[in-house]
């Protein structure tokens, strides 16, 4: 079994090293950076990391630096196609312009999820974990 | 190990992975590991407009723990074989 | 007791439901029915001929919650892997 290299975490991530990657975290944050290292738990080292926020068809980014991300917080790791990256139909704006919109969107979603979880808990016997803001 | 084996037999097939954050990604299953982490190539995101950060992403690694469902190609799953293997695995667990 | 038919531990109930239609309640406001073909010790499941019921709560802009706020959306899937950590309960078909 151990000799089947494609069927291991290391087998599937080996060709992503030193490439520009997108990392989505469980709290919804989106990071972009160069993947320098990883292990079997999908702990990641990301260099020259920027955080991106999106709102409709605009985005903004903020430089964050060098990160070691604990694997359990990782949702997905995407390889950014550098050819397609330039053709993305999105407009970049200043972080300070977009931040308020983004925060409101996050807060609204949290509020809606909490209200929904409360209703389903009371009437349908579902657990209230929705209040934590995600289904993980 | 049983489910891991099932996924291994489905490599190079097209599957749709639905995550717990409601993101659905269709792609070619390139690899899977013991934690059911999944590597998908040539991906297509359902409702891409709601997930603009995914636009330039072609291949991705999904951590097994964030998966809710995987829709499998039914024609490539032998249900009789699955049930037999499940019973065998259940029997071997009891003996332990 | 005959270990092939008796129920001695929780998973025996699921084993006896193989190739039958089961009801599965999941975290994240979802319920499934489908024919059970495989499971493992994490309660990962493989089901076919699945109908998913998603509960949707209407939420007007003013933040109030109306009395009849719960709607359902249904979706059918051919062959589905369900990750065990989302499972709240599995209920076998009722037997006469």
From TrEMBL, chain A:
It holds the Pfam family LSM. GO terms for cellular component: Lsm1-7-Pat1 complex; P-body; ribonucleoprotein complex. PROSITE patterns: SM (PS52002). The keyword Cell membrane does not apply. Transmembrane segments: none annotated. SMART domains: Sm. Keywords: Cytoplasm, mRNA processing, Ribonucleoprotein, RNA-binding. It comes from the Eukaryota. Residues 8-83 form the Sm domain. GO terms for molecular function: mRNA binding. InterPro entries: Lsm1, LSM_dom_sf, PTHR15588, Sm, Sm_dom_euk/arc. It is found in: Cytoplasm; Cytoplasm, P-body. The keyword rRNA-binding does not apply. GO terms for biological process: deadenylation-dependent decapping of nuclear-transcribed mRNA; mRNA processing. Component of the heptameric LSM1-LSM7 complex that forms a seven-membered ring structure with a donut shape. Component of the cytoplasmic LSM1-LSM7 complex which is involved in mRNA degradation. Belongs to the snRNP Sm proteins family. This is U6 snRNA-associated Sm-like protein LSm1. It comes from Steccherinum ochraceum.
From TrEMBL, chain B:
PROSITE patterns: SM. Belongs to the snRNP Sm proteins family. It comes from the Eukaryota. Pfam families: LSM. Residues 2-76 form the Sm domain. One of its GO terms (cellular component) is U4/U6 x U5 tri-snRNP complex. It is found in: Nucleus. CDD domains: LSm2. GO terms for biological process: mRNA splicing, via spliceosome. Component of LSm protein complexes, which are involved in RNA processing and may function in a chaperone-like manner. It comes from Steccherinum ochraceum. InterPro entries: LSM_dom_sf, Sm, Sm_dom_euk/arc, U6_snRNA_Lsm2. Its main location: nucleus. This is LSM complex subunit LSm2. Keywords: mRNA processing, mRNA splicing, Nucleus, Ribonucleoprotein, RNA-binding, Spliceosome. GO terms for molecular function: RNA binding.
Automatic annotation (TrEMBL), chain C:
Residues 9-96 form the Sm domain. InterPro entries: Lsm3, LSM_dom_sf, Sm, Sm-like_LSM3, Sm_dom_euk/arc. It is found in: Nucleus. GO terms for molecular function: RNA binding. Its main location: nucleus. Coiled coil: none annotated. Binds specifically to the 3'-terminal U-tract of U6 snRNA. Belongs to the snRNP Sm proteins family. This is LSM complex subunit LSM3. The lineage of its organism: Eukaryota, Fungi, Dikarya, Basidiomycota, Agaricomycotina.
